[in-house]
Design goal:
Elements lengths: L15 H17 L3 E2 L5 E3 H8 L4 H6 L1 E4 L5 E4 L4 H10 L9 E10 L11 E10 L4 H17 L5 E7 L6 H14 L6 H9 L10 H6 L12 H16 L5 E2 L11 E9 L7 E7 L3 H4 L7 E7 H7 L12 E5 L2 H15 L5 E3 L6 H10 L4 E5 L1 H6 L1 E6 L5 E5 L3 H10 L2
Parallel strand pairs: 1-5, 7-8, 12-13, 12-14
Antiparallel strand pairs: 2-4, 3-4, 5-6, 6-11, 7-9, 9-10, 10-11, 14-15, 15-16
This protein binds adenosine-5'-triphosphate (ATP) and magnesium ion (MG).
Adenosine-5'-triphosphate binds next to β6, β10, β11 and α11.
């Protein structure tokens, strides 16, 4: 039997209702904050990700699903959505009317990581991005919206971790100092970090390996090396969060796995997930639009890990949707009549089902029960003969005759009003 690919998964009915609820909650909240949905492709030119995420990151170095299509163009299944959103902003000159554009998108991402709990090779993210805005108030508002989103989903045990990564003015000096620190470390770092030490020292701070974490405990921090502008910006972010009553922790070690981040960076962590504790991550990427060939415009955004979120959202209130009407039939004539009726009733917004296999009446009643049907319309030989079906209220068990004449209209009225 052919199984799904390792690290990929199915979201089956039963769980999918929870996913739909999360999607609806995100869309409605984000739209209240002025975000509009954007849908970008899943496949892009490899170059887009290599240039935005950075060639020396784990994602680009070893995690992307990249292949040549038949015309030998190098293409990649997107590992994240921000690059594509920025590409769309530039390509369609969305900045021309107003540089400030707010987008959200929900969809699958692909990274060839080691599959484990909370880490998949196809996973889903909810992104929100504000392009063209530099104000630290925007940073605070975005974090506020993210926290409110989790609150609406009743996710408990979350904390906001906040850091700043500076800007091209103040970061190089810090990077040099970090490099110096790392070259003096005696402890053996993991193989990845030995490589990162030279190519991308900042990423060593983000390593999940315990020995590496301990080794960088006293590493210099960006927050102590900020230029005046970055310092002022970060202070306003913090002040604004306090005004909004958002609790946060400054986490000097917090860096993100993508090169394009500048200034404010944040992560939402939870104690409910074990090792993969980050439910969402985000931050500023003030240089990315320009680097991808667009106008000089700052930006900020976040990505929520949908799969991890779904795991911690209480599924208590979610149950499979019940149906309004099940039509149980006996014999071909009854089935033909029921078929027409069920189609006409379903299109009017009443959830209607019937049985297409040749189950007996008893089996069909059982099925109706399992589907949580509120009413069952019974149509057997006797009913066909008398041209009157029987409608059974599954809660009260009360049965009422419904003549064929005008039955569809009568059922619509009855079911809509009960
Ligand atoms: P992590 O540190 O957990 O690897 P990350 O820094 O790589 O996360 P981002 O690229 O910022 O994550 O993506 C944002 C969110 O997407 C993460 O906080 C996480 O919830 C989720 N995410 C990232 N990679 C995966 C994955 N392989 N499987 C499931 N969710 C993921
Ligand atoms: Mg990662």
């Amino acid at each position: 039997m052919i199984q799904l690919i390792r690290g990929f998964k199915d979201v089956l009915p039963g769980e999918v209702e929870l996913w739909q609820m999360i999607e609806k909650t995100a869309a409605s909240l984000f739209e209240d904050f002025g975000f509009r949905e954007i849908r970008v492709p899943i496949l892009e030119h490899t170059e887009l990700f290599a240039r935005s995420i950075g060639k020396d990151t784990d994602i680009v170095e070893k995690e992307m699903y990249t292949f040549e299509d038949s015309k030998s163009d190098l293409v990649t299944l997107r590992p994240e959505a921000t690059a594509s959103i920025v590409r769309a902003y530039i390509q369609h000159r969305l900045y021309a009317v107003d540089p400030v554009q707010k987008f959200y998108t929900i969809g699958p991402m692909f990274r060839r990581e080691r599959p484990q709990k909370g880490r998949y090779r196809q996973f889903y993210q909810i992104n929100a991005e504000v392009l063209g805005a530099e104000s630290p108030l925007v940073d605070a508002q975005l974090i506020f919206m993210l926290v409110e989103f989790l609150r609406r989903l009743r996710v408990s045990d979350t904390s906001v971790h906040l850091n700043t990564l500076g800007c091209p003015k103040c970061r190089p000096a810090f990077q040099k100092e970090l490099h110096r620190f790392l070259s003096k470390i005696k402890t053996q770092l993991c193989a990845d970090c030995e490589r990162r030490k030279v190519k991308n020292p900042l990423r060593v701070l983000d390593c999940k390996v315990l020995a590496c974490r301990e080794a960088v405990a006293d590493a210099p921090a960006m927050i102590d090396h900020l230029c005046e502008e970055c310092k002022g910006h970060f202070e306003t972010v913090q002040k604004s969060l306090k005004k909004l009553d958002i609790q946060f922790e400054i986490d000097k070690r917090l860096v993100r796995g993508l090169d394009y981040y500048t200034r404010t960076t944040f992560e939402i962590q939870t104690g409910l997930l074990g090792a993969q504790s980050a439910v969402a991550g985000g931050g500023r990427y003030d240089r990315l639009i320009e680097e991808l060939g667009g106008p000089v415009q700052p930006a900020i955004g976040f990505a929520i890990g949908f799969d991890r979120l779904a795991e911690i959202v209480s599924a208590n209130n979610i149950s499979a949707p019940e149906i309004d009407l099940f039509i149980a039939t006996l014999g071909e004539q009854a089935k033909t009549a029921a078929f027409e009726w069920s189609c006409s009733i379903a299109v009017s917004g009443i959830k209607t089902e019937m049985d297409f296999s040749d189950k007996g009446l008893k089996g069909q009643m059982k099925k109706a029960d399992r589907l949580g049907a509120r009413y069952v319309l019974i149509l057997g030989d006797k009913e066909i003969g008398e041209e009157t079906a029987v409608l059974r209220n599954m809660t009260t068990k009360e049965q009422t005759p419904v003549p064929f004449e005008g039955i569809v209209e009568n059922l619509k009225i009855k079911l809509k009003n009960s």
